[in-house]
Amino acid sequence: MTAVDDRVIALFEQLEVPEGYKAELLRGEIVMMAGPDWVHNMIVQSVADQISRERWDRLQTQDIAIPGEASEPQPDLVVYERGAFEGPGRLLPAPAVTLLLEVASKTSVDRDYRVKRSIYAAGRVPAYLIVDPIAGRCVLLTEPTGWGEGADYGVERTSKFGDPVPLDLLGAILETSEFRTLA
């Protein structure tokens, strides 16, 4: 990282975010957005409920540290194996994470499909799930490759709402029939 990146990170860490908003640092850019809507929250809750608490921690509003990136994203849901991280601190290291979930919105769709896809792959997060209530589909990305802005996932599996989504790394099958759309 450069001195500019360090200054942006310091500024970001001191940022006072207004109530009802969230802020993320994505490749040196501070992105602020309004809180999520009901459809979004119900999808996140449904996904979390379908992942076993016996083996996995499922956290919302958890910032992630991505090695080598001037990024501190806050995915909609973070899933990691119990005991893989015990804190303290506000940043959970990406290498401890098994799956990250983002629920796309009209204002986040480009970041979710493009920017965060590359950031999470660069952080070597094994699985990235995009649930898109605009298009009525789920996109599961696995097998991260590459580095920096050129990082991506080698495997992409798309399922429409109503079809089950195998989350093999978690030993779960995600039922999506109750996911609502924003249409």
Note the beta-strand portion: 25-35%
Helix and strand composition category = alpha+beta
| Radius of gyration computed on alpha carbons | 16 Å
Overall shape: it is globular
Average predicted confidence as pLDDT: 92
Sequence of secondary-structure elements: HEEHEEEEEHEEEEE
Written account of the structure:
It is a single chain. This protein has 183 residues and is of the alpha+beta class. It has one domain: tt1808, chain A (Alpha-Beta Complex). Helix content is 21%, strand content 34%. It has three helices and twelve strands; from the N terminus they run H-E-E-H-E-E-E-E-E-H-E-E-E-E-E. The strands form four sheets. It has a six-stranded mixed beta sheet with strand order 3-5-7-8-9-10. Strand 1 and strand 2 (29-34) form a beta hairpin. The radius of gyration is 16 Å and the shape is globular. It starts with a helix and ends in a 9-residue tail after the last strand.
Question: What tags apply to this protein structure?
Answer:
single chain, tt1808, chain A, two-stranded antiparallel ribbon
